Amino acid sequence: MEQSVAALMQQILPEISNVSIEGFEQIAGGFSRETFKCDARVTRNGGEEVLPLILRKDPPDVEAILHTDRSVEHNLIESLRLRTTIPVSRSYGYEMDPAPFGHPAMLIERASGSGQTSALFNGGPDEDQAEAVVKHLCEVLVELHSCAIDKIDPDGALTDPFNRGIDIKSWEAFMDSTIEFFATSYTSLNYDPMLMIALDAIYTLRRNKPRPMPLAIVHGDFNPANFLYENGQVSALIDWEASRVGDPREDLGWMVLMDAVSNTHVMDYPKKEGGFLAYYNKLTGNDITPEELGYFTLFGTMQIAVPVQQFVSRRVNKEYMLLLPYYVAQSSIPAFPLMSQLMGYTGVPA
């Protein structure tokens, strides 16, 4: 693959020459894409440069939890990089032809900063940066949610990028079509009686819809693992493949769940502003209530739970024999008690 990386970089940046790839290795990058890092040593304008890179490659279809499009992700990242101050890594380009890498892939600048966000909390070595980093993270999220959709996504690629039948002509249409997608998906993930919690969540979401709010571009996987930081600032918001048009409260709700599962405390900061939600409300004037946050914690959990549990269900039904789905199932179990709390189950500790 090193040769394919060099060839793609040469194609994307015709002004460079003598491209050599160094330190190519696979790294942990979530469950959805195969992720590699390397450095490209190049000659440009008579001088030598080293370009730090990330290669994100689609897995085989049978191993894919969420089927996403590298060209859509590239276009979004570059639109944000060129039209906003949101810190993102440059996306150099993509290759949709599976021949060079085995599957579609994209090349992204490897951003500086730490991805060990757990070090910001619980007495970690970077806890002195937590206040400033999370305050900046909230400001970044507010800027994303404030972007005009047609400015960032003029071609409408984020309207329904996963082909779920989502209708965004209004907030009500978005909510109804999304909940309907959850409902019609239930039979494909009901592999264990515990999944009745998901069915109850669908009925709860349908019954208790909150007040409407203008739709926005949402990150889609806004969680403690998807930002880098250095010197008290967010250096990059990463992993944009789940982005789409949605309710901005989804990103906040998903962070609540992942904060709890990860034993981090993003939502408790910035403490001087009363926490993440209070600061978000101060910046936006949206006055999102804790009850709305609870609703969208459940809603955001279902957005991710459907493809994840479908992935596990296919393994349980022996459609393939990978071990990864069992690891995914194990790591998702802590979400069920929180879902139970949100729906008011008796006997579940708050």
Question: Keyphrases for this structure?
Answer:
17% strand; alpha+beta; two-stranded antiparallel sheet; 350 residues; 2 domains; Phosphorylase Kinase, domain 1
Q: Can you list the strand order of the major beta sheet?
A: 1-2-3-5-4
CATH class of the largest domain: Alpha Beta
What value does the average pLDDT take? 95
Helix content: 40-55%
Please state the second-level CATH architecture of the largest domain: Alpha-Beta Complex
The radius of gyration computed from the alpha-carbon positions, rounded to a whole number of angstroms, is 21 Å
Characterise the protein shown here.
With 350 residues, this protein is of the alpha+beta class. The chain has two domains: 108 residues, 2-Layer Sandwich (Phosphorylase Kinase, domain 1), CATH 3.30.200.20; 226 residues, Aminoglycoside phosphotransferase (APH), C-terminal lobe (Aminoglycoside 3'-phosphotransferase, Chain: A, domain 2, Alpha-Beta Complex). It contains eleven helices and nine strands. Strand 2 and strand 3 form a beta hairpin. Helix 5 packs antiparallel against helix 6 and helix 6 runs antiparallel to helix 9. It starts with a helix and ends in an 8-residue tail after the last helix. The mean pLDDT is 95.
